[in-house]
Structures are given as structure tokens and as C-alpha cells.
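FAQ: What does the model actually see?

It sees only this:
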Amino acid sequence: MPGPHSGAAGSKASRQAKTARGIRHVDLTDVQLGSSETARHINRDIVLELVRTHQPTSRADVARRSGLQRSTVSQIVEQLIEEKWVREGSVLNVPRGRRPTMLVLNEELVAIAVDIHPRQAIVAVVDLNGRLLSRSLVPLTSDPAASTRLLVACMQRMARTVPRSSVEGIGISLPGRVDPETQRMTFAPNLHWPAFDLKRVIESKMGLPVKMENAATACLLAEITFSRMDGTRDAVLLTVSEGVGTGVYANGQLVAGHHGMAGEFGHIPVDFAGPRCGCGQKGCWEMFASCRAAQRYYRELQPKRPEPSFHELLNMAEEGNAHAAQALTKQAQWIGRGLRMIIAALSPSTILIAGDITTAWHRFGPAIEKQVAELTLAGSPPLIRPTHESEIARLRGAAALVFQRRAPQKTAVRQLAAEERPHS
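And it is asked to produce this:
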């Protein structure tokens, strides 16, 4: 799938290029020279994005919205149909002239999406429009090899429900960080798995390409790909569950950082006298803002009562239990306080929040927004918005990993630059 910005952007960039003056830094260690192939890739992405966001749409409408020649659009559409990204739908009845054939995304193209949590995983089949076609729960243990066997068995069952040729690949959302270069987990303190090459094992068993990403980044990718975020250039998505994770979107790009570790705000200590975190430090933000923290707050208030699950805690608060409500309020306040780190460091225009807390946003939202407004250093505070689709967003994000067009490898880019550079 292309990025979040569509057709008119191409002509706008072209107009700006004609009047551009001054010096712009170019990193010569990672550069791709402009070529006709580069333009074809850009135009292809624009056409596919326009089909996705305006489907059903005609070739003429795509040409009008993009500013591309109709012949160019027709060539690209034929390529997309051949690649199975797009299919032709109904023929539109018009009062005069040729009846246009409408274009839609090919919903028969699917990905197997896996959302891994510390005790269980959710496996789903997701189509190109982000719809969940089927879904299954898989129990997990502290043994990654045994857990992977259960995952593979579930994926094999689900893959048999759709034609083999329609499965594009497997996307995995993880409660930890993934190195973009090696595609191996580098940091997953809540999962408690020893070093394990999950990608290699699943690829060898399933015979399909596997892409992996941090759960918060996967949620953010789902928002960018399947929701309307055009015009938003700086955003952070915060997932609140057994831990606290963040995905970062800056200047229109997802940020991975060194070894994929960008955005680990949940493991920044906010109180060095606080409880020990799974990462080994004391007083990390997630020890005060996670769902586990809310359960701990309730246990401190009611030490003789059995500890409820977080869902039970939410229900108890709605039924008028004052101690449950107090525990959730304290969690919400700590979420808001910790967001100051994100606002001061990244200054996003939008902060998206995903997780079970969004089901009680009437309770969490005002408390979080109050803290953010009081702690914003300058200017107006960012927009705070719940996603309300935490589980679905992780699965959609995992599928979007599969549907994303791969960027050229750096080695190939450098080779291109070397070949076309004038000889001295």
C-alpha cells in the first residue's frame, strides 16, 4: 500500500520544484538518483492510493484527481490489475458517452495477521481493505518454540480457508521492539522469551514472507493506512495494556531509530523509588500508567480483596465501586503526566491512544487531557484522540506491514548512484 498522502500531492510537489531555490542537504551515503523508474513508482503509488480512498472510482476520475495523463493512468491501472492489487468492478450507467468501468481494491488479496501478547496471540485473515475475515485465539507460554508451533498450526488452518495464491504474506505485531535490519526481536521485557528467530521459523514452516513490528507502531501504521490522516505530519500513538508502548510518526515518516528502539518512553524512569520494571530498571513510566499499574493501585486500596482483571476493574468502577474508580483515575493521571515527555521531546500535533482504556474514555479522557493541558510547555496542547480499535488496529497494522511496497535496498541504491555518477 502507498503512504497516507494522495494524488494532488504529486502536482503540488511538481509546482514547488519549479520554483525551488537554495541549498538542500543530500546524504550521499544513502541517495537514489531521479529516474523514469522513480517517477513510475511515485505515480503508481498515487494511483493506488486514489483507488483505495475513492473506490469505486473510474480511470477518468483518477486522472482528474491526480493530474496524470489518462493514458498514463490506464497503463498503471493495467499493471495494478496484473499485480492483483486492483480489480475492475461494476460498469457505471451514464446519460451519454462511454460507460466507465469502476475500479476497486482486490479484496481477494489477503494477509495473515498475528498480534502477540504475553499470554496469548490473535491470528486473523485481513483483506486489502483492512477487513477481518476470520479470527482465532492461540494460547502462548514462556517457551517460544512451543508457542510458535501453536501459532503455525493456527495459521496453517486459516490459510486453508482462502486460496493459496491470494495470501500475500504474514505480518506480526509484537509487545517489543524489532530491529529493522535483522527483523529479530531486540527488546520485549513483558514477553519473557529468550532469544528466538521467530521470523525465520515461521517463514520456513509457512513458506510465506514474514514482516514484524512493534505493536504501537503497527497500530499507528493501521491508522495511517486505513484511516483518514491526510495532512497529519507529526503524531504519536500510545498503547496502554500490560505495558506502555509508543509509535512515532514525524515529518510524514514512521520513525524506527537505532535497532528499532525509537519511542520506548514506557521504559523511561519517572520515579527511581518506584516498583521494579520488567526491563530491570525501577520506576519506569509503564509501572505507573499501564493496566497492571491500575490493578496494583486497587490492590493497595483493598489488600484483602482478590485482585481483579483490568476488565473487571473497569466494570467495578462503572457499577460505583469507589476504590476501582480511584485506581483508574490514578492510572489516567499518570498517563497524562508521562505524555509530557513525549510532547517535550517530539511536539506531535496529535496523540492517539489505543488499548482497553478507550472503552471507558469518559473516565480516562478528561483526566488525561487535563494533565496534558497543565504540563504543555508552550502553545496549544496536542489533540488527544482514542482509537477505539486497539485489537483490530494491531491486526490491521500487522496486515499493512505485508501490503506496504518494499523500498529499494540501500546497497542497490548506492550501486545505482555509483553507476550513473560521471567518471572523474
